[in-house]
Amino acid sequence: MAFVRVARDGVAVTQAKDVALDASLGKRFTLKTDVVVVGSGAAGATVAYEMAKAGRDVLVLEAGRYYPSSQFTEHLGDTMTRIYQDQVGQVNTTADIIFVQGACIGGSTVIGACVMEEPGNKVLDRWASDYGLEGLSAEKFRPYLDGVADQLQIHINEAHEINACAHKVIQGCEKMQFSWKPAQRNVKQCALTGHCLAGCPSDRKMSSLVTHLPWAVAHGARIFSDTEVIRVRTRNGRARGVEARITDPDSGAHVADMQVDADMVVLAAGAIHSPLILQRSQVEDHSGQLGRNLSIQPFTQVLGKFKEPLYGFRGALVGVQVDEFTHTDGYTIFSGLAEPESLLAQGDMKAGEAHIQFMKDYKYYAGVNAFSTDQGRGYVQWEGDPYNGDKTIHWNPNREEFESMKASAALAARIFFSGGAETVFMPTFQSLEVNSVFELDAALDQVDYGLKGMYTFRCNSFSPHGTCRMGADRYQAVVAPTGEVYGTAGLFVADSSLIPEPMSAPIQWTVQALAKYVSDQINDNAHNYFIG
Amino acid sequence: MKNNNRAPLPGFLAGLEPLSRRGFLRTSVLAGAALSSGCASMFGRREAPETLEYHSLTPDEVEVITRLTEVMLPASQYGLPSSTDVVPTIQNVDTMAQRMPEQTRELLGLGIWVFNNRPMVSFKFSRFTSLPDDKALDYVNAMQEGSFFERGLMTTLKALVALNYWRDERTWPGLEYHGPVTEVWGVRRLGNAPLPRA
């Protein structure tokens, strides 16, 4: 076996500007490969590495730009402009929920908060029994989770990684007798800068940008950025490659059209974009579930203001998690307070003197991020022709989900009051600050469900999943237990779309383990898919 | 984003029938984008406002955004860099608008127009830009406590203005926020992780 060397820094990526300068390629060109991987985030990077390591010719296509870590500025606003999907303007049809996603080489792993959590044995065993996914039973899936943990250096936060913000959460939990634990993160020798959401310039976050992608390239994989896959090409019920469009990320100018001829297509563009690509490709959808079952894990941020300055934005971004309600009510609460810009996403930010004071109190704040579990009723839909149409994301809370969001925010507020907060700012579109735990219920009663729950809670989604769910019943699922799309040979999905039901844990760990599992399914049956 | 849900306008939007709910919602999308984006780009943030031209915002829109900035961010009164004379907040909003797709840009204009002209009895149907300081602030607060549509629009415009002010690092010392630290602290870059063991 040849000696494999990983680049010391950066990843070899062909960008739009490189294509524009290469006269031999022209405006329309074709590449051939064994496997084309669509997306370079948690799933795509893992598949690319596993397939390249197995000796396959791998081509990775990423719609976002290449933004090497050496250029990270630790300015959240600038980073959002450059590498967040739609400049953080990816929203549902009623525009009150933001779907936060990375749009760059490395995907959301670059901008994530590093929080890692397993799905839990009960969840995995239920997937095995209810969806016929025997390969995902706790016993069989354990080695995949452990493998990812080793590769990403996942560890339980140590004392120095628990900052003042997190300590307020701990104090509150201790008084309430709520179970809490240090969060698990994929960081190596964390420098405690608190700038996770703007990317880690010192490469301590074990994102795909510094792990699976350079490893894949070391094994011969090629990566294109600025390349959006429009649709999968199929012939006689079999995937044959993709059509893609290369666009300059700064000017928006169309640079070239690319066609890829491949033995296999693996979609890893995430739970929003993978089903949209399948819809644009008009693949068979026997189950009628393609794009449906969207679960968003609604996320709200609650701020507590304390008497003493905390400087809660210093240190590791996420320190502890409250796991008291994770398996009973589906709420998971993490400590965390990011850059000043993040305060503007919390809820009402007031105006005039009140706004200035709200911002000037930044050093007195601690933040908690409350995730609740939804019912997976959303869906994504491509509308229009493949090149000029629009994506639409449909999710609004029903009354039950609305009450669940309210309950998780209330729990977060109670934790802060128990920890000594003087005031708690609730994550609502209407101005809602509470000065005593005894006022909390009355204050929350002011938040009315209204019309489809619109513009009630200021809510984001970091972990959408479930839109191409995996299962053994082809009339209930989009993807078979092998990862192959029902009805289209040679077309696989390997990302969070596969998750068969709403889950409460952060999903990155599960997604990377699933991607490794799908890669193994392909490699173990390579004689069915590849010639030679 | 498309929304095919074409329900009739609810009663509290009376008088605004020519504007569809979809239009309002799309305007709010902008908000989301603005909020997030800090779409204001990095360019030109350090220029003095008086040297700046507006490339995308119309004079009427500049007037509304300027007034909203003055009302929402009376920063210089509290020892912070002025939101109009030091930090080019409105120019940043203009730069953001320049980078928007045409349809989104039109919707931003619609949102600004609706905000300025939203008829409210308690404000004698005055335009936002014609209100004195105290009334203008009351107007902003009333919108924030209004119907779901008003809350959405107000949150959007406030985020648009606030983000394009607070993203300027000259505002951070006033918050005792440290800003970027990796270089200051001399944190060593680790580079790519080594290949995992077989």
Tell me what you see in this structure:
- The complex is a heterodimer of chains A (532) and B (198).
- Chain A is α+β, with helices and mostly antiparallel strands and 532 residues long.
- Helices cover 28% and strands 20% of the residues of chain A.
- In chain A, strands 1, 2, 8, 9, 10, 11 and 21 form a seven-stranded mixed beta sheet that branches.
- In chain A, a hairpin with a 6-residue loop joins strand 10 and strand 11 (254-267).
- In chain A, helix 12 (399-418) runs antiparallel to helix 13.
- Chain A is globular, with a radius of gyration of 23 Å.
- Chain B has 198 residues and is mostly helical.
- Chain B has a domain at 70-169.
- In chain B, 46% of the residues lie in helices and 0% in strands.
- In chain B, 40% of the residues are buried.
- Residues 1-24 and 29-50 of chain B have low confidence and may be disordered.
- The interface between A and B is large, with 83 and 69 residues.
Name its key features.
heterodimer; A: 532 residues; alpha+beta; seven-stranded mixed β-sheet; seven-stranded antiparallel β-sheet; 15 helices; globular; B: 198 residues; mainly alpha; 7 helices; 46% helix; 0% strand; elongated; disordered N terminus
Beta fraction of the residues of chain B?
under 5%
Structural class designation of chain B: mainly alpha
Tell me which protein chains meet in the greatest interface and how many residues each side has: A-B, 83 and 69 residues
Oligomer: heterodimer
Largest sheet of chain B: none
The share of residues in helices of chain A is 25-40%
Q: Whole-number radius of gyration of chain B?
A: 20 Å
The total beta strand count of chain B reads: 0
Uncertain segments of chain A are none
User: Whole-number average pLDDT of chain A?
Assistant: 95
State the shape of chain B.
elongated
Which regions of chain B have little confidence, pLDDT < 50, spanning 5+ residues? Answer: 1-24, 29-50
- Structural class, from secondary structure content of chain A? alpha+beta
How many H/I helices of chain B?
A: 7
Distance between the termini of chain A: 18 Å
Beta-strand fraction estimate of chain A: 15-25%
- Distance between the terminal alpha carbons of chain B, to the nearest Å? 46 Å
